[in-house]
Design brief:
- Strands 11, 12, 13, 14, 15 and 18 form a 6-stranded mixed beta sheet that branches.
- This protein is globular.
- It has 2 domains: about 120 residues, lpxc deacetylase, domain 1 (Ribosomal Protein S5, domain 2, 2-Layer Sandwich); about 140 residues, lpxc deacetylase, domain 2 (lpxc deacetylase, domain 1, 2-Layer Sandwich).
- It is built from 6 helices and 18 strands.
- By secondary structure, the chain is an alpha+beta fold.
- Strand 7 and strand 8 form a beta hairpin.
- It binds zinc ion (ZN).
Length: about 280
């Protein structure tokens, strides 16, 4: 039997938000068993909370947004991914903005923050999302499958028409060690023209070559950490989006999936297997 966990001590992190370009401070506090992952908007009157669960996903346009009672949190997927990778059941995230800091565009700094906090086991059984049969969600040529598996594994194929990127495949057992080494450092990737369009819409204002890998028709504008960094980041995002269902046990096979399909799978799993 696995027990629930929380962080052993409070930790905080300050950095720029990707879309607003403003400084954001996020304080992670230990939380009781069965709290789950909760964002507390300390910048708003009454400090309202938004629970990070699949039912609260309201938008998946470029990032995963959750909303409860009209209170939103944007771009939660990288923080959620680090929490999933570290196996944390319960935490309160006190935050003074509508999105977490972007950090370096990956989840490495969040994962290291959790390691710094340490993990404390709680006296309550963990309610895992255990895949008991095949589940499948599709959208045209994109899909995600969930299969029974003794562990947590992701096999992802990304197919991008740009010759610089092309077809990439990654298959990882998501253990804490593998997550930190192979997945957490993989950063967000964007096409230069997309970045320009976002800036014109007043979005992505905190995006710089420090936190987004940008490519154009000539090549990469900043160096990659891994030659297949794109597919690794896609796996990072999927691990984060699946955490909205709970801590999962199963093998996930994804082709060309993004936040929309990832969170459709989370909603399905939460509805079928959640307690
Ligand atoms: Zn991402």
């Amino acid at each position: 039997m696995a027990f629930q966990t929380t962080i052993a001590a409070p930790v905080s992190y300050t950095g720029v938000g990707l879309h607003s370009g403003k400084d954001v401070t996020m304080k992670l506090q230990p939380a009781e068993a069965d709290t789950g992952i909760v964002f507390t908007r300390v910048d708003l009157p009454g400090q309202p909370q938004v629970e990070a669960k699949a039912e609260n996903v309201t938008s998946t346009l470029r990032a995963t947004t959750i909303e409860d009672n009209g209170i939103k949190m944007f771009t939660i997927e990288h923080v959620m991914s680090a929490l999933h990778g570290a196996g944390i059941d319960n935490v309160e995230i006190c935050i003074n903005a509508e999105e977490p800091p972007v950090a370096d565009g990956s989840s490495r700094e969040f994962f290291q923050l959790l390691q710094k906090a340490g993990i404390r086991q709680l006296d309550r059984e963990r309610q895992e999302i255990v895949i008991d049969q095949l589940y499948r969600v599709d959208d045209g040529d994109k899909f995600v499958l969930a299969l029974p598996y003794d562990g947590f594994r992701v096999s992802f194929t990304s197919i991008n028409p740009h010759p610089l990127i092309g077809i990439q495949y990654g298959d990882y057992e998501i253990t804490e060690e593998n997550y930190l080494k192979e997945i957490a450092p993989a950063r967000t990737i964007a096409y230069e023209k997309e970045v320009e369009a976002l800036h014109k819409m007043g979005l992505g204002l905190g995006g710089t070559l420090e936190n987004v890998i940008v490519y154009n028709d000539e090549g990469w504008m900043n160096p990659l950490i891994y030659p297949d960094e794109l597919v690794r980041h896609k796996i990072l995002d999927l691990v984060g989006d699946l955490r909205l269902a709970g801590i999962v046990k199963g093998h996930f096979v994804a082709v060309k999936s993004g936040h929309a399909l990832n969170t459709t799978m989370s909603k399905l799993l939460k509805a079928k297997l959640g307690k």
